[in-house]
Design a protein that fits this description.
Elements lengths: L8 H12 L4 H4 L5 H4 L5 H22 L7
Keywords: Membrane, Transmembrane, Transmembrane helix
Length: 71
């Protein structure tokens, strides 16, 4: 790792261009990363249920006029 503080303009340009290149699948080996192996669990399955319950609550508030402060 290069820890030098000052770089020549050519080195800086080369560094920026190398950082912009996309990661290559063969060299990155995402299958060896532990976060890539974990399956999504739990909370995303409850999202539709939460949306439905919140919709029922909002519809009830609107229909009953709980939020209506007018006379």
């Amino acid at each position: 790792m290069d820890t030098r503080e000052s770089k020549t303009p050519e080195e800086e340009k080369e560094h920026v261009l190398s950082e912009r290149l996309p990661e290559d699948f063969e060299t990155s080996q995402p299958q060896q990363q532990p976060e890539a192996k974990k399956s999504a669990n739990g909370l995303h399955n409850m999202l539709p249920l939460i949306i439905i319950v919140m919709g029922i609550i909002v519809a009830g508030i609107v229909m009953l006029g709980v939020g209506n402060s007018g006379g």
